[in-house]
Amino acid sequence: MAAADPSSDALNDQESELYDRQIRLWGVQAQKRMSSSKVLYAGFTGVCAEAAKNLVLAGIHATIQDHRAATYADLGTNFFLTAEDVGKNRAASCQARLQQLNNLAKVDAEERSLEELEDAYFKQFTCICLSGAPLHQQKRIDGICRSAGVFLYVVESFGFYGYLMLDLGQGFSYRKELGENKGLSDPIPVAFPSIEEAVGAPWSTLKNRWGPVSKVYALAQLMLEFEEKHGRRPGASDGDTMTSVAQQCLKRNGLPTDFIASDETAVLCAQAQVEINPVCAVLGGILGQEVIKALSQKGTPAHNVFLFDGTTSEGKVMLTPPAAK
Amino acid sequence: MADRYAHLRASLGDELLAKVQAAKLLVVGAGGIGCELLKNLVLTGFLNIHVVDLDIIDVSNLNRQFLFRQEHVGMSKSQVAAAAVKVFNPDATIVAHHGNVKSPEFGLNFVAQFDLVLNALDNVDARRHVNRLCLAKDKPLIESGTTGYLGQVTVIRKGETECYECQPKPTQKSYPICTIRSTPDKPVHCVVWAKELFRLLFGRAEDSMLYEDPAGDEPSAYMATVTARPEASADAITAYAAAVLVAQFETEVAKRIGMDVYKGAKRLPEAVAGGALRALAAEYAQAPSRVARKAGWDRDVWGVEESAREFSACLHDVYSSAALREHVGSMEFDKDDKIAMRFVTAACNLRSVVFHIPLQSYHDAKGIAGNIIAAIATTNAIIAGLQVLEALKIMRAAKPIREACNYVWCLREGTRKGLLLQPTALEPPSKGCFVCGTRTVDVHLDTAALTFGEFVSRVLKSRLGVNEPSVSVGSSLIYEEGEDAAQGLRANLPKRLRDLPGGGVTDGTSLSVEDFSQDLDVTVCVYHRVFDEEEVPDGFVVGGQMPVASAAKPSAEPPSAETGTNGAPAAAAAAAAAAVPAAAAAAAPTAQPAKRGREDGGSEEPPSKRAAATVATAVDTTGGDDDDDVICVGDD
């Protein structure tokens, strides 16, 4: 593998040629930073497969982690898998095919589960994309990331919905692009709340002048809440259980109990473990874009949640907990 | 049942999934968006897909067109892409067509077999054509485009929504000849000039904007030098390089200064000393490309000395190679040809020194010369995902398309509401649209100057997107193309518009233009108008309304004498100055999408001298080199 020479401030001819169209967008320095960065895709779901495709193409090294075996259903969204891989480890099965996308980016596989991996393991990465992990694992890994300066992206694609929560730490800053020939702004600092702080904010406080808290956000949190209580994500037959979880959650969060109707919780149960490709593609694209923004420190990052509704194609950023007035 | 459709079944339901699996789709384009789209479609259960693309795979595609590998470079995009996505879902049948979607085999009958068409194109020309095919056959069309971080998706349905051409598209930027030849003030002017010099030295010289007729009234400062092609000996080539350098960067510059071309200019151009150029021509062995190249060399900016050495080195490379010198007189500029690009960079920078314009690196000059548009995987992935979501809404058919579907923007910075993906309602058809509405379009031009051939290639084909025009005045056919076309009518092409048979085309004449390949039937109303070349380099304005600005500001700056225009009447010049060329409108910060189009190479009539200048001058700022597309601005 011809790795980039991180000590040089220039790109070699192969990198120049391969990355020409993207360097014209983000510049040589950003490309150098990206080429010396490494992303952990923890939980190689369909949405992570999309993000990994985008970022390996861009030249960012990758480690894909998954302890689960591939299923036939996975073939519907994870295009690195084939029918021969069913029953085998997802990460190991995808490694070679992801590697084929770009031999300038190194791709590794990790088959141990998140529980088995020690805290120190996570500190070797520049970014971690975490998918399909229960909330307590999200919080654990977030704690490690915040202390080690690793950027964390929690991403979930469920049915037509997409959820992305970012923690770029307390000391992140970026520059805004001021338009053609006008260069970049001075660094703009932006402090990210921890995952714990973010999910702890009562939903009633997340309204703004355009309306109450996003329903996609509430549904994602309900799904995670159910998982914390029952040790698994909800399924199609969990409608009644989910209704009572929803009632408790809504009360606790200061929202009327009819804010989420029972048919909506039923849809959530049916979709919580379902990924469909177009939503993975959109969300994996946004996730890729956000990782590139953070590594290049150019462009306003999503601060701190991005929500996608595939029934309307609306994708928006919200802040939780809300900014102090 | 746990199969690859388990998730889709749970999410879409059996009924919609069955519709999806039974649908027959056409995907036009297998580039940046197309690769993502094909993957998304087969993973979403679409099993019956045809894909058309004329391109072959280039190494610069590999950073985002993830179906392609190094070993595929040079192969057909549609064929490689079809084989690759078949692996993602072996149930799918993908039929690859390596060809131009504008060719007759992909015409109305071809399109008729599909339930839905998805565009993944990189140019306005093909988009217009597919738009017309879909309107003619009443097929829903999902249109898309990306540029850098930005993109958009929209849905077009005959009678329900705006068609692709309901909103005017910004057109190719043209530069006035005299700006390029005499008064450049931007790097792009010098790049255009350098490409013209390339054509003069290595291509069809008489098509170059810098060509000067040896039989003309005024003696040329450089034509004799340029045409005295050297023998293969190193000394002869050096002497030739020195002579051309001196002729272009000393003698010609001094001549123009002497002609008082720059009277009133803020700063006079400065000729490069001939003695220095001669010495540098001999130092071609020390040219930047010849000395050991370190990483990042293409970001270096060559000054006068390096540029002059490089200029000479390029001539040595061409004339000392039997294989290359054989093609002198017929070469075409290609941004990916290293010799051509080194030459253009060197010539551009020498020209820039003369005119005090910032110099360019090889990398940046290549971006300008090839009109390279930044392109990344993420934006294409997002846009292609959004296209499939719209496709699902169309398949579901729960509501009319205009209610069910959206126009969706992908933005770099969020809107006030924090939207990065912003859906908006689809607009109804525009009544004034010449394609799906009134079928009438006004064209303002000089009927005494423009030939009918120019009118056909530049107005009808390039601007209005007509593929195979048949043109009638009143009841008499004056031109047609396509199978069985009457060849005798080609005799009309060299005639001035006003000299055409049947009294000629003059102010107020209506032409009937038909294109059977697109099922298009349009009335073109011609209005006689003389434009100043500085203001309207294209020489014509298309549109139902003449710009309001002409009434509000009757005395826009008259063309200045130093630009060397040929003395257009003052009234016409003032009017022309106030006319808003399409390119200027395109630059306005509106919330409209600004699509871009490739430099059109499709006209079969050799353009006249004047047309050649304008067309050749178009550094297609609105056209990209490959795949992807679009510039979009949005706000809530």
From TrEMBL, chain A:
Its main location: nucleus. Residues 19-318 form the THIF-type NAD/FAD binding fold domain. The keyword Nucleus applies. GO terms for cellular component: cytoplasm; SUMO activating enzyme complex. Keywords: Nucleus, Ubl conjugation pathway. GO terms for molecular function: SUMO activating enzyme activity. Pfam families: ThiF. Pathway: Protein modification; protein sumoylation. GO terms for biological process: protein sumoylation. It is found in: Nucleus. InterPro entries: ThiF/MoeB/HesA (IPR045886), ThiF_NAD_FAD-bd (IPR000594), Ubiquitin-activating_enz (IPR035985), UBQ/SUMO-activ_enz_E1-like (IPR000011). Belongs to the ubiquitin-activating E1 family. This is Ubiquitin-like 1-activating enzyme E1A. It comes from Tribonema minus.
TrEMBL record, chain B:
Residues 10-400 form the THIF-type NAD/FAD binding fold domain. Pathway: Protein modification; protein ubiquitination; Protein modification; protein sumoylation. Residues 578-594, 611-622 have a biased composition (Low complexity). Residues 444-529 form the Ubiquitin/SUMO-activating enzyme ubiquitin-like domain. It holds the Pfam family UBA_E1_SCCH. Zn(2+) binds at residues 163, 166, 433, 436. Residues 623-636 have a biased composition (Acidic residues). GO terms for cellular component: cytoplasm; SUMO activating enzyme complex. InterPro entries: ThiF/MoeB/HesA (IPR045886), ThiF_NAD_FAD-bd (IPR000594), UAE_UbL_dom (IPR028077), Uba2 (IPR030661), UBA_E1_SCCH (IPR019572), Ubi_acti_E1_SCCH (IPR042063), Ubiquitin-activating_enz (IPR035985), UBQ-activ_enz_E1_Cys_AS (IPR033127). GO terms for biological process: protein sumoylation; protein ubiquitination. Residues 578-636 are annotated as: Disordered. It is found in: Nucleus. Residues 314-366 form the Ubiquitin-activating enzyme SCCH domain. Keywords: ATP-binding, Ligase, Metal-binding, Nucleotide-binding, Nucleus, Transferase, Ubl conjugation pathway, Zinc. The active site is at residue 178. One of its GO terms (molecular function) is SUMO activating enzyme activity. ATP binds at residues 29-34, 53, 61-64, 77, 122-127. Heterodimer. Belongs to the ubiquitin-activating E1 family. This is SUMO-activating enzyme subunit. The lineage of its organism: Eukaryota, Sar, Stramenopiles, Ochrophyta, PX clade.
